[in-house]
Specification:
The protein has 1 helix and 5 strands. It is α+β, with helices and mostly antiparallel strands.
């Protein structure tokens, strides 16, 4: 449960920063792996959710970089997620 709250808080912060930074994508989650690979998750779009039990509909993108910061993989798909900032009913 606490991991979910941390994730939702991170997404909320990323949403705020994404709006403030315009087109620059700021990761809301970064994982570093033993083989010097870094995978970042970013919010690629934000909209108010039409579903009353959610606050936002977002799309999430994934980027893989090597230790030199070169992009090795850029996920062209947009993975949809719905965000409930208040955690109602949980």
């Amino acid at each position: 449960m606490s991991r979910l709250i941390i994730l939702l808080t991170s997404i909320g912060i990323a949403l705020s920063l994404a709006r403030a930074q315009g087109a620059e994508r700021i990761p809301f989650h970064v994982s570093n792996f033993d083989d010097d690979v870094t995978v970042s998750l970013t919010i690629t779009s934000v909209a108010t959710s039409p579903e009353s039990e959610y606050d936002f509909d977002v799309t999430i993108g994934l980027t893989e970089q090597n230790k030199a910061g070169e992009i090795k993989y850029l996920d062209k798909g947009n993975h949809g997620a719905r965000v409930d900032c208040a955690g109602r009913g949980k």
